Amino acid sequence: MDKTTRMLVVCAIAVLAISGRSDGQQTEFEAADVHASVSGASSIMRGGFMRGGRYELHSATMVDLIRTAYGIDADKVIGGPDWLDTDRFDVIAKGPVDASPDKVRLMLQGLLAERFALVVHNDTRPFPEYVLKVGLRSRLKETTGGDSNCLAAPQNGQTTAYSCHNITMAEFAARLPRMAGNYFQLTSVADLTGLNGSWDFTVSWTPRNSLTAAGSNAVTVYDAVEKQLGLKLDVQNAPMPVVVVDSLNENPAENPAGTSQRLPANSDGV
To answer: What predicted TM-score, i.e. pTM, was given to this entire model?
Structure first.
């Protein structure tokens, strides 16, 4: 490759990096109005979706904006000044009508970097989470095959039961918070059983809001998992992905001239 060709390649790479386009598709908003929310605005973020090429976020703190842009929970946004949880902003932007949620998040990331000079990096931090382990002796039976599912079995109002077939431990751990409802203050269960393959089993417990009524017959989901399946539910710290805020400006850069004229009308025609 001669010197001229090398220079052309370098220039092409630079253009792609600046425009945010590595696959020929748009990865930045065509126009965007970013401004501080009016005084007394709602304390709850609204919006966060693309409709007819118009994207809106209202009354969003910087934590809201970052968690939305990076697809993480608010407690996984680490660092930054105190105002990240107090100052609120509105975002109204124009983008492709068919933009996927992933593409919208990329465009919002670019917008935060452009208007707030936001700089972040990825890291991990220890967070408590439920973990599923093997107890003293597993009572699981290897699957006989068939469809993979966990179906609710008919029971009286004081018992919840699930019949699971051809289920891996990773799948069971992922389903547990939904199956057991308000037993789990944390939203995820990590599979640390080390058990490979798929399994058939039935497990039943007393719903948390029925424990008092069930009296001595009550069985918590923790006891059910341990005594009926030979597994154990614990809470321990585990490394979780986080976004660390390195630097940013409190006030967004001014909107480019003519921004409001370039924004698509909302459903009310405004």
So the answer is: 0.67
